[in-house]
C-alpha cells in the first residue's frame, strides 16, 4: 500500500479516487507476512461442512458442565449481569447457527476453548438476535462466538465457524499483555476474547459528575496516552499508561488546560503494521491507534498491570483518569474512529464485525467489494439502522459508565454518507421521490447524526467532527450540525499558517479567523463551533512548522511518500534543526506568533501535546508508526522551557481566561471590535497587506489592542487615541523571554516599561518584522 495513514486530515485538499480497496495493510517482507496474518482461530472439535447452509436444529436441552443454561433475552446487546448470572445477546442477520465459547484466561494462553454451548434457534433466537442466559462461576472467564452460514464474499458474507469472534459490544478485550510485544509463537494476531462481566464491587466515583463547562471557555489539549509519559524523563512508576497520565495532570492544570482530547483509547492492535524498520533499527507499530478492534473496550495495554491480574483493570484505570481530571476541572474528550475497523478489506483478518454480520457493519458494493472512504480498507456502515444504534449505544456507554465529557469523530464526514442498500422507506418510514442514492452518497440529514444530536444523553456532551474523509468529502463549515456540533477548523489552520509566514493575500481571511470564522459558522452556529488549531497529531509540530519546509518521513519506511506534502511551513531561512542563531531566534518568534493568533481568536483553541515546550519530530509529519522519541513527551525538555516558551504559553492561556472578550458566545460586532491598520481605524485589506490589527472592548481589561506584522520589514504603528489612558505592552513576541510577556511580578518590570515610554507617550509602538503585540489600556494616573 502506498500510504497506510488511516486517520484525520491527510489529503483533505485533493479528492481521492477511492471506492473499492485493494490495500488494507502495509507492504511487508515475506518473513513478516506469515507472522502478521497467522490465523486467529482456536480449533474446534468439529468443523462445519462447506455445503452446510441450512439452520442447525438442536433437539436436546442445552447442557453445560460448568454453567446453568437457559433461553436468555434479546436485549440489551452484549454481556449483561442479571439475576445472579449473565445474559448474552448478539445481532447476526445472516448466520444460520451460533455457539458461545467460554474461555478461561489460562486456556486463552494455550489457545484452547474451555467450553462451547451451541445455541438452539428455536429457543435462543428472536428475530435476528441470538441470546442465552448463563449462571455459574465467571471469575477470569472470557467469551466469544462462532457463527455458521455462507462464506460468500461476492454476496458480502464471511461466515466461518472456525473463527472465534469478539462480541461487538464487548466491554473489555483480552489478548496480549504487553504493548508492542508479540504473542505466542511470535504471532501478531493471537486469539482475542471478550471479558465476561461480574458483580464485583462497584467503582467508587467519589461523587464525580460531568463538569459541563461552557464550550466557549475550553482550551483543548490533544494528547496520546502512551506518548505522554512513556519517556524515561517522566520519572513515574507506570509510564505510558492511564495511571501515568493521571499522575501528570498537574502539568496540564499549570498550563491552563481545562479539556484533554485523548487520541484513540479503544482497543486496537499496535502490532497491526509490525515490520522491521531498517532506518531506525526498531519495529513499526500502529502507535496512534486509529484502527479499532472494539469500540466499547478501553485499550487494555494502557493499563498499569497485565490482564493476568485483573481483566477489568483497564476499565478502572480509565475511570480513575477521568475522575482525577474532573477533580482538577479538566474535561475528557475521546477521539473515536467510527469510520472503519482494523479488519481492513477482504484480505484482512476476521475477528469480529466481518464474521458476525459483514453486510450489516460495512459499506459494500453489489458484488461484495468494500467501499474505502476511510483510506484504510473498509468503511463503517454508519447509517444502517443496526449500526447507527450500535454507535449511539457505544457513545452512551462511555458517557454514562466512563463519565467522558464528549467525543471527537475521526473522519466524521463518513457518518454523513448513505449506507449500503440505502432505502428511504427503511430509514425514514416512507419512500422519498427521486431517492436514488448510491452507497456512500452524502445526505443532508444523516440518520446517525440525527440520532446522536437528539439523544437525551448525547445532546448534552461535546460533539466535534473532523469534517472530511479520505474519499474527498470536505464539509468544514457545512457539516450537519443541529446547532450543537463543532468542527475541527482545518481552514483556520491553513489560513493562519500562511498569514503568519508572510504569504500575500491572506490578511482578510486571517481577520475572519480571528472573529471565529463567521464566514463558515454564522447562521445557526456560534464561534465556539469552530475548534481552532495550528498543529495536531497529523502534520508538523509547532517547532517543526518553523524549522522545515519539507517533510522528512523516511523513517516511516515508505520512501517519504506518506504524509501531507502541503504543510504551509517555513524554515525561517535554513532547513533543519542545525541553524544559525539569528534563524533560531526568528523561529522562536514565529512560534510565539502562532500561539498569540490561537489565543486571541474567537472559537475554541486546541494545542497539541508537546507544543508548549517546542517538541520536535525531526520534520516527520506522519508519525503513526513510531513507538519512540518522536511521539514521546519530553519532560526534561519541558523543564528546560519552563521559563521560556512554556511560560509564554501558560501566561497567554491565563490571559485568555481572564479576558471576557476572548471567548464570546456570539460573533463580535462593530460595537465591540474595531479594525486598524498602521493608522487607527484604517485597516488595509489589500492583497499585499501583511499587517492586521484590532482593538476589543473588554469588561475586565477595559480594552485590548492586538497587532500582527508578518512582513519582513519593521514598522511603526500609530495607536488608537484613548483620552485619559495610555497603552501599555503586555506581549511583544520580538522580545526575548521573559520580556516577551510582561507581568506585574516580572523582575525589573519598570525598567522594561521605560524602554517603551517615549513611544507610548506619542501613542505609537515600533514593531519588528514577523512579530505580534498585545497592549492593554491603563489609566494615566496609575502609571
TrEMBL record:
It comes from the Eukaryota. GO terms for molecular function: isoamylase activity. GO terms for cellular component: chloroplast isoamylase complex. It catalyses: Hydrolysis of (1->6)-alpha-D-glucosidic branch linkages in glycogen, amylopectin and their beta-limit dextrins. Its EC number is 3.2.1.68. It is an enzyme of class 3 (hydrolase). Keywords: Chloroplast, Hydrolase, Plastid, Transit peptide. It is found in: Plastid, Chloroplast. CDD domains: AmyAc_Glg_debranch, E_set_GDE_Isoamylase_N. Residues 222-656 form the Glycosyl hydrolase family 13 catalytic domain. Belongs to the glycosyl hydrolase 13 family. This is isoamylase.
Amino acid at each position: 500500500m502506498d500510504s497506510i495513514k488511516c486517520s484525520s486530515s491527510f489529503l483533505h485538499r485533493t479528492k481521492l479516487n477511492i471506492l473499492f480497496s485493494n490495500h488494507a495493510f502495509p507492504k511487508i517482507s515475506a518473513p513478516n507476512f506469515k507472522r502478521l496474518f497467522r490465523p486467529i482461530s482456536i480449533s474446534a472439535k468439529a468443523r462445519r461442512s462447506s455445503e452446510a447452509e441450512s439452520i442447525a436444529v438442536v433437539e436436546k436441552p442445552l447442557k453445560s458442565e460448568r454453567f446453568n443454561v437457559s433461553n436468555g433475552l434479546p436485549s440489551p446487546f452484549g454481556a449483561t449481569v442479571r439475576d445472579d448470572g449473565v445474559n448474552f445477546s448478539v445481532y447476526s442477520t445472516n448466520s444460520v447457527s451460533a455457539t458461545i465459547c467460554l474461555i478461561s484466561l489460562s486456556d486463552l494462553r494455550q489457545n484452547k476453548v474451555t467450553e462451547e454451548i451451541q445455541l438452539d434457534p428455536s429457543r435462543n433466537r428472536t428475530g435476528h438476535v441470538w441470546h442465552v442466559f448463563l449462571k455459574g462461576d465467571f471469575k477470569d472467564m472470557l467469551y466469544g462466538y462462532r457463527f455458521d452460514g455462507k462464506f460468500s464474499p461476492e454476496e458480502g458474507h464471511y461466515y466461518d465457524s472456525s473463527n472465534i469472534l469478539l462480541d461487538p459490544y464487548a466491554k473489555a478485550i483480552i489478548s496480549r499483555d504487553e504493548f508492542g510485544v508479540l504473542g505466542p509463537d511470535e504471532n501478531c494476531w493471537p486469539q482475542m476474547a471478550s471479558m465476561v462481566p461480574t458483580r464485583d464491587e462497584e467503582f467508587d466515583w467519589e461523587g464525580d459528575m460531568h463538569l459541563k463547562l461552557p464550550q466557549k471557555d475550553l482550551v483543548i489539549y490533544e494528547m496520546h496516552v502512551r506518548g505522554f509519559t512513556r519517556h524515561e524523563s517522566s520519572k513515574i512508576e507506570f509510564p505510558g499508561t492511564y495511571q501515568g497520565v493521571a499522575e501528570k495532570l498537574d502539568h496540564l492544570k499549570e498550563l491552563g488546560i481545562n479539556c484533554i482530547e485523548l487520541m484513540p483509547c479503544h482497543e486496537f492492535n499496535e502490532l497491526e503494521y509490525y515490520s522491521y524498520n531498517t532506518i531506525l533499527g526498531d519495529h513499526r507499530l500502529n502507535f496512534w491507534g486509529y484502527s479499532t478492534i472494539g469500540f466499547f473496550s478501553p485499550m487494555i495495554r494502557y493499563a498499569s498491570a497485565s490482564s493476568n491480574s485483573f481483566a477489568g483493570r483497564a476499565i478502572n484505570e480509565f475511570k480513575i483518569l477521568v475522575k482525577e481530571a474532573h477533580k482538577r476541572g479538566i474535561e475528557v474528550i475521546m477521539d473515536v474512529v467510527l469510520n472503519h475497523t482494523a479488519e481492513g478489506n477482504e484480505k484482512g483478518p476476521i475477528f469480529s464485525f466481518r464474521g458476525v454480520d459483514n453486510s450489516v457493519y460495512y459499506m459494500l458494493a453489489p458484488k461484495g467489494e468494500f467501499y474505502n472512504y476511510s483510506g484504510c480498507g473498509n468503511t463503517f456502515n454508519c447509517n444502517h439502522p443496526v449500526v447507527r444504534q450500535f454507535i449511539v449505544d457505544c457513545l452512551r456507554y462511555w458517557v454514562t459508565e466512563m463519565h467522558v465529557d464528549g467525543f471527537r469523530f475521526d473522519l466524521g464526514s463518513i457518518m454523513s454518507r448513505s449506507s449500503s442498500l440505502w432505502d428511504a422507506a427503511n430509514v425514514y418510514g416512507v419512500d422519498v421521490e427521486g431517492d436514488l442514492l448510491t452507497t456512500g452518497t452524502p445526505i443532508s440529514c444523516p440518520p446517525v447524526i440525527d440520532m446522536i444530536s437528539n439523544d437525551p444523553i448525547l445532546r448534552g456532551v461535546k460533539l466535534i467532527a473532523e469534517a472530511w474523509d479520505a474519499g474527498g468529502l470536505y464539509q468544514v463549515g457545512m457539516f450537519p450540525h443541529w446547532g450543537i456540533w463543532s468542527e475541527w477548523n482545518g481552514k483556520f489552520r491553513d489560513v493562519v499558517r500562511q498569514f503568519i509566514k508572510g504569504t500575500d493575500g491572506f490578511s482578510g481571511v486571517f481577520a475572519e479567523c480571528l472573529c471565529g470564522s463567521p464566514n463558515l459558522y454564522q447562521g445557526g452556529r456560534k464561534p465556539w463551533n469552530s475548534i481552532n488549531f495550528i498543529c495536531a497529531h497529523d502534520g508538523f509540530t509547532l517547532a517543526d512548522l518553523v524549522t522545515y519546509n519539507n517533510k522528512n518521513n523516511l523513517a516511516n519506511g515508505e520512501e517519504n511518500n506518506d504524509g501531507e506534502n502541503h504543510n504551509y511551513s517555513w524554515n525561517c531561512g535554513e532547513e533543519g534543526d542545525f541553524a544559525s542563531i539569528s534563524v533560531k531566534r526568528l523561529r522562536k518568534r514565529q512560534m510565539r506568533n502562532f500561539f498569540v493568533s490561537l489565543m486571541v481568536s474567537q472559537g475554541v483553541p486546541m494545542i497539541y501535546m508537546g507544543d508548549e515546550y517546542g517538541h520536535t519530530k525531526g520534520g516527520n509529519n506522519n508519525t503513526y508508526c513510531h513507538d519512540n522519541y518522536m511521539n514521546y513527551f519530553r519532560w526534561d525538555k519541558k523543564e528546560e522551557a519552563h521559563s521560556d516558551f512554556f511560560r509564554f504559553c501558560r501566561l497567554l492561556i491565563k490571559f485568555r481566561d481572564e479576558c471576557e472578550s476572548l471567548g464570546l458566545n456570539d460573533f463580535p460586532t462593530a460595537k465591540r471590535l474595531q479594525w486598524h491598520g498602521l493608522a487607527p481605524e484604517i485597516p488595509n485589506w489589500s492583497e499585499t497587506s501583511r499587517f492586521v490589527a484590532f482593538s476589543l472592548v473588554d469588561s475586565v481589561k477595559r480594552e485590548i489592542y492586538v497587532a500582527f506584522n508578518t512582513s519582513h520589514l519593521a514598522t511603526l504603528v500609530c495607536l488608537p487615541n484613548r483620552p485619559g489612558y495610555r497603552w501599555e505592552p503586555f506581549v511583544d513576541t520580538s522580545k526575548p523571554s521573559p520580556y516577551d510577556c510582561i507581568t506585574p511580578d516580572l523582575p525589573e518590570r519598570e525598567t522594561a516599561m521605560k524602554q517603551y515610554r517615549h513611544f507610548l507617550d506619542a501613542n505609537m509602538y515600533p514593531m519588528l518584522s514577523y512579530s505580534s503585540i498585545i497592549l492593554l489600556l491603563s489609566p494615566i494616573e496609575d502609571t
